[in-house]
Amino acid sequence: MQNKNGDTSEVRNLMQGFSRQNASACAEVFSTGLTELDTHLGGGLCREAVHEVFATGTEQAQTADGFALGLALRSQPKTLIWVMQARAFSETGLPYGPGIEDWGLQTHSLVLVTVRDTAHLLSAGEEALASGAADAVLISAWGDGPAFTLTASRRLAMAAARGRSTGFFVRAAARPAPSAAETRWRVRAAPSTPLQAQAPGLSALAVELLRSRSGAHPGEWTMEWDREARTFAKPSAPRGLVSLPADRANGAGQGDRRAA
User: Fold this and answer.
1) Is residue 168 a contact partner of residue 54, using CB atoms and an 8 Å limit?
2) Interior CA angle at 50 toward 48 and 54, to 5°?
3) Among 105, 130, 223, 258, fewest CB within 10 Å belongs to which?
4) Which pTM value belongs to this model?
């Protein structure tokens, strides 16, 4: 692969350095807020890395965005850059200001970037991560494509390390493939617990860890997003879906994990 100047040496050296340092030793982690998940992860999620979030189905794209946005907020960014592919917002709509603030993010700290295709999405995401202009970068993609290569994921990971930024790469209408992401998740909506007087409850998510470079075993948890506290939390009285042991034996998703 060549850079814009046609010189392969810089990219090759960066790739070699990335491979040497990727026994995945996090210099710093941030908490998800869910104690049992943090414990399973060895304290929390790595900063200055990229975390992949896959929607279980196309109808779960906004759920995946919500989970990734929650993780980004848990990293306590002063500025968040959100890069969206045109196909993603044509399918789900652009982020709605009042809804974003209700989720816990002040819109004055959000920079929204829209691009037309996957190549521009990856380029903009890499530039945002490497710039150091934002503590967190959320990238929303739609579909598979030849641009989503292992090399592209490595470039994002290296950009996050250079810019000391944390990336959250949301994939909808896509299948997991080998990548350099620190963690990989699969997300779907879960039944929420009604509040008093049958008022709508907190948003509930069923979240599955598919792989982790730190060696944490796959597992699944049901959690709520507490927008006032800006944290994930265990549902007080979950219905339908329940939290499962992190080390449970589960045949579901084995194909995805083998592909990692």
Assistant:
1) no
2) 155
3) 258
4) 0.82
Task: Specify the amino acid at residue 130.
Answer: A
Count of alpha carbons within 13 angstroms of residue 82, beta-carbon side: 24
Check if the beta carbon of residue 85 is closer than 8 Å to that of residue 140.
yes
Per residue in 109-125, pLDDT (tens digit) is 999 999 999 999 999 99
Contact (CB, 8 A) for 38 and 46: no
Encode the chain in three state secondary structure. Answer: CCCCCCCCHHHHHHHHHHHHHCCCCCCCEECCCCHHHHHHCCCCEECCCEEEEEECCHHHHHHHHHHHHHHHHHCCCCCEEEEEEHHHHHHHCCCCHHHHHHHCCCHHHEEEEEECCHHHHHHHHHHHHHHCCCCEEEEEEECCCCCCCHHHHHHHHHHHHHHCCEEEEEEECCCCCCCCCCEEEEEEEECCCCCHHHCCCCEEEEEEEEEECCCCCCEEEEEEEECCCCEEECCCCCCCCCCCCCCCCCCCCHHHHHHC
At residue 139, φ and ψ (nearest 5 deg) are -120, 120
Strands 80-85 and 136-142, how do they pair? parallel
In angstroms, rounded to a whole number, what is the distance separating the alpha carbons of residues 148 and 43?
Answer: 30
Q: Kindly state the percentage of the chain with pLDDT values over 90.
A: 74
Alpha carbon distance 256, 260 (integer Å): 6
Nearest Cα to Cα of residue 102 among 190, 203, 204, 236: 203
**Contact assessment for residue 193 and residue 238, using Cβ atoms and an 8 Å cutoff:** yes
Residue 73: other Cβ atoms inside 10 A: 20
Sheet holding 231-233, edge to edge: 110-115, 80-85, 136-142, 166-172, 50-55, 183-190, 203-212, 219-226, 231-233
